[in-house]
Specification:
Helices cover 46% and strands 16% of the residues. The protein is of the alpha/beta class. It has 3 domains: 2-114, N-utilizing Substance Protein B Homolog, Chain A (Orthogonal Bundle); 118-147; 203-399, Rossmann fold. Helix 14 (229-237) links the parallel strand 5 (219-222) and strand 6. Helix 5 packs parallel to helix 7 (96-109) and helix 6 (80-90) runs antiparallel to helix 7 (96-109). The longest helix has 18 residues, at 314-331. The radius of gyration is 23 Å and the shape is globular.
């Protein structure tokens, strides 16, 4: 099962999390599978470094079998004989001796530490170079090192259904601030989650919504809303009073928003399907707040979505920034004078973040940058995010 998931990640650009959600395994086996899959993906280049000098030409399936086995040998509490025997069983008939001999040599050698940062921290060379160019070498190394760690599971209480005092009674739940907590275990299997009293949401993601500064009675647009976690937080902070339009490109994903709102007791959200990059004249200056949590490269998510680093190509960034610019251009007119526009990404890339906002403001002097912040994962111990809060000037401000 582990090998099948890895093969699909690399051959079909699949996502491990989606495949593992569909698998049938007990809790103990599921934990082992997750550790081996994610560990192999996070340490892919480092694992290859341990054996490639011994056998450079291998089929993809065989190479991934060796990678996952080396991970078990060097990173997991698995007896060497067990990891090697399992690999030999999974190997093609004519490669069993080769796999056996190679893994025994790796086990004998122990960990070989490379000098290159991109190999030590298993990031494609272009991503390592991007981090260093944008944030300096010291911060880049810290980012990459954090991306190699098992992410903390964060959640958020839904104050429409539960108080912090009530939630604190749950074993394994530790509050970070007034609504955010970390949890040890499978939060989605708890009664708290299933009843809509708590949601799974990364710490940094939760901070983005606070920049909107919403109040009960406002009219708010969440332009790229699915699956609706931020939408629900907005509704919660508005005490379920006002109106929220939750827009999503793909019609079938609006069902995720509707289901979440029903489960969490939200009644002020109206989901709709539409292309956020296309301007709608009828929506001009009709929202107090607009959130643009735009599609991005995901370079802030490399801890819990390690496969992104192997799927993404440098040329993809140009297409992504084009879409981001179009969404900003289409949605900015929807903000009322005196209203707030918040732009956010879950990436660490100035081209998609600071540079995108500078280009937008240069063309739109009706907006002013009030605040921006980069959430570095090694600081927050959560995903990397960027957020820009912009104010649309009122008539008085424009006259000045």
């Amino acid at each position: 099962m582990i090998l099948d998931i890895l093969v699909r990640v690399f051959s079909e650009n699949g996502y491990a999390s989606l495949m593992m959600r569909r698998m049938k395994a007990d809790e103990k086996d599921a934990a082992f599978i997750a550790e081996c899959v994610y560990g192999t993906l996070r340490n892919y280049l480092l694992l290859e470094y341990q054996w490639r000098h011994l056998a450079k030409k291998t089929k993809m399936r065989t190479a991934l079998l060796l990678d996952m086995s080396v991970y078990q040998l060097l990173f997991m509490d698995v007896p060497a004989y067990a990891a090697i025997n399992e690999a030999v069983e999974l190997a093609d008939r004519h490669e069993k001796k080769f796999v056996n001999a190679l893994l025994r040599q790796v086990s004998k050698n122990g960990m070989i530490t490379p000098e290159e940062d991109e190999i030590r921290y298993s990031h494609p060379k272009w991503i390592a170079a991007l981090f260093k160019a944008h944030y300096g070498e010291e911060n880049a190394v810290k980012i990459m090192a954090y991306n190699q760690t098992r992410p903390v599971q964060y959640g958020r209480i839904n104050t429409l259904k539960i108080t912090r005092e009530e939630a604190e009674k749950t074993e394994g739940l530790h509050f970070i601030d007034d609504i955010c907590f970390s949890y040890e275990g499978a939060l989605q299997k708890t009664e708290l989650f299933q009843s809509g009293k708590v949601l799974i949401q990364n710490y940094s993601s939760q901070q983005i919504v606070r920049y909107l500064d919403v109040k009960p009675g406002m009219r708010v647009l969440d332009a790229c809303a699915a699956p609706g976690t931020k939408t629900q937080q907005i509704a919660m902070l508005m005490n379920n009073q006002g109106e929220i339009i939750a827009n999503e490109l793909h019609a079938h994903r609006t069902k995720l928003i509707d289901e979440l709102m029903e489960r969490t007791g939200v009644s002020i959200v109206q989901s709709r399907s539409g292309d956020a990059s296309v301007y709608d004249e009828t929506q001009k200056e009709s929202y107090d707040r607009v959130l643009l949590d735009v599609p991005c490269s995901g370079l802030g998510d490399l801890s819990h979505k390690p496969e992104i680093r192997w799927h993404l190509k440098p040329e993809d960034i140009d297409e992504i920034t084009k879409i981001q610019a179009e969404i900003l251009e289409a949605n900015a007119p929807y903000v009322k004078q005196g209203g707030i526009l918040v732009y956010s990404t879950c990436t660490l890339n100035r081209k998609e973040n600071e540079n995108r906002i500078r280009a937008f403001l240069k063309e739109h002097n009706e907006f002013e940058l009030f605040e921006e912040h980069t959430f570095f994962p090694f600081v927050t111990k959560s995903d990397g995010f960027y957020c820009a809060k912009m104010l649309k000037k009122g008539e008085t401000a424009q006259e000045k």
